[in-house]
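User: Okay, second chain of the day. Same drill as before: sequence in, structure tokens out.
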Amino acid sequence: MAQPLSIAVVDYEGGNLASAARAALRAAELSGRNASVIITNEPAAVRQADRIILPGQGAFADCARGLEAIPGLKDAILQAVAKSTPFLGICVGMQLMAERGLEHGVTEGFGWIAGEIAPMDAPGLRLPQMGWNELELLQPHPLTQGLGPAPHGYFVHSYALRNTTEDTLLASADYGGRVPAMVCRGNVAGTQFHVEKSQTVGLKILANFLAWQPEATL
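Assistant: Same drill. Structure tokens below.
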């Protein structure tokens, strides 16, 4: 029997860990894939995983500091990504993929995706954006296959990616203007919405992520 696909959900006190892990395991079950999921802050476990998921909620700066505070953890993610391990960031986990965040000062991100995380401009609309919003799929990609017509994701955020490049955008949403909802470059991808709360659409994206064989590495 083939070894199960190992999925590391990174624990840096960024929130949503258990629900992200449960959703990843459920996505594996629904797609008939043998997988093991661990919640870990051990650098060695992250380096050895077949897939890395970085959840996150709250402020960009707090999450970045939380990641830096665990010796070797950020380096382990960078090393795994450099050797082609597929990576998925969720909510603030996606935001950390950008060059910088502007919440509570300027904070450096991973720099994988061009742009910065800035306050949303949504005149007349409540912030944070909280609830379901339709996703506009912008280009074909293995991660968005099979989502069906008018897929929706569940969002909770008041900061969003801006000044990015069009080629990295897989999906957007409309909330007082276009909001980057899903990004990808090489073997790293991220969703501004919470896949673990997005029901059938979220589980399908996670199943696609588990099957994903990126054609390029950062």
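The longest strand covers residues 178-185.

User: Thanks, on to the next one.
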